Amino acid sequence: MSKPGLNTLKPGQHYLAKDLDSFISSTDAVLLSSNDNQLFTEPEREYKVVHEFTGFFEHSMEDGEKYFREKKAYVVEKA
To answer: Is 2 within a domain?
Structure first.
């Protein structure tokens, strides 16, 4: 299922960890994984995109404010 040059992920679709690695290395996005910090430990493991968000709120330690960041964020889980 290797898809070189991914520029977006689609909810409901399955992707190999190596494809997600390539995607996140070349795209300004955030991946949230139910697999903790082991997302890229098995390149052939398959993950399903369960949610896609156009942005998220982030707390600034500098000024204590919360800001909405328009940055794609995806939730993935082991398939």
So the answer is: no
Q: What does the DSSP 8-state code read for residue 38?
A: G
- In a domain? residue 7: no
Query: pTM, whole model, 2 decimals?
Result: 0.85
Neighbours of 67 (CB within 10 A): 11
| Residue 73 backbone class (left: φ over 0; alpha: ψ -120 to 50; beta: rest) | beta
Query: pLDDT per residue over 32-61, tens digit each?
Result: 998 888 999 999 999 999 999 999 999 999
**What is the CB neighbour count within 10 angstroms for residue 58?**
12
> How many domains, the chain?
1
* Residue 9 within a domain: no
Query: In a 3-state reduction of DSSP, which class is residue 28?
Result: coil
* E strand residue ranges, 1-79: 14-16, 29-33, 46-53, 56-59, 66-69, 72-78
The residue to which tokens 């430990």 are assigned: 41
